[in-house]
Amino acid sequence: MATFLKSLLAAAIGVALGLTATWLAVERGYGFGAVSSGPWTGWPKTGSDGADPYARAVLARTGEVPLGLAEGLSFTARTDEAGAKLDPTCDYIVTGPIPPARYWTLTALTPRGLVIDNSAGRTGITSAEIVRAMDGTFAITLSRQARAGNWLPLGNTSDFVLLLRLYDTPLSSASSSIGATPMPRLRKERCA
Prior knowledge:
By secondary structure, the chain is α+β, with helices and mostly antiparallel strands. The protein has helices at residues 2-27, 53-62; strands at 35-37, 40-42, 72-77, 90-95, 103-109, 124-126, 139-143, 150-153, 161-167, 185-191.
């Protein structure tokens, strides 16, 4: 009887640990195969047949439809370049370079992936509408208050993440080179 109770206790602990580990893996990203460059993290295999079971579980839970390998690649930033969590009461500057892509978008979202409501009604900025300097460089300001130039409003959210989508990029087919690719800088400017 004692052996049976010990076995039952060991099985219960194993199940609890397994479920906890799975929940943490699903809540904190798309499983394995993440590549990072500065504050940006991407999961290049998420939209492919090679997606791991944790990535598939996240996609099933959220209902998200990822970009396929031939379509492009997505990167998420949850921190600034110094490693501090993004704070919507602060202003941030995003400056190039953007990896090669036919088209790109930069969107501020809630950590759950929802669009942030703001009075400007603007949820993102794209490569087609970006205002560039004479030398081709650009800067995007993220702030709750309106700013001149390329401005992405943060609204009244308590938390946010940035999503950079690269469409029709050569990086999508060469995931081993993504970590070495220069990504945009994300610098905190000032806080309210």
